[in-house]
Amino acid sequence: MHRPACKISYLAVAASLALWMQAGFAAREEHTFEVSVSIPTLDFYVLPVDPGFLEREQRMNWDLGREFLHPLRASFDVRNASGGIAARLGHEPALSNGRDEIELSVILNNHPLTPINTVIVPESEARNGSRVPLRIEAIKPQDGFKAGEYYGSVQIIFDALAPVR
């Protein structure tokens, strides 16, 4: 009668080992992330050529030798099937370190932007679409650039203009 008890205990050990091994292979990982898309209408759009341009902080590079901030440059694809395109600043653009400010000049398609609407693409060019340059330049303060970590934002508002009749 020793042998059947031995068989039962070997079977019990083998079964528990099999369950333990199966539990070991049952590990899993789970990830959740956000997905979005913005599909523009073909009638009106203003989109950066580099899709990440608006999603990440843009850094102005400091030229130590010339004590100069290099301008930011980007290109935008624009279109208005029924008229021109105007743009304006949502607020005065500047960089600040909490004490000092550096004003910024925003130039789109060779037109300096202000808080007042400016036609940046005439109807004749906007109808078929075009690629326009954006340049953001630092305006050197009267007393020069001061050391520090500066941050700021630029808000540009685009308007589709009605066709000229």
UniProtKB/TrEMBL annotation:
Signal peptide range: 1-26
InterPro entries per the UniProt record, alphabetical: Fimbrial_CS1-type (IPR007540)
Pfam families with a match to the protein in the record: Fimbrial_CS1 (PF04449)
Record keywords, A-Z: Signal
UniProt name for this protein: Fimbrial protein
Organism listed in the record: Pseudomonas kulmbachensis
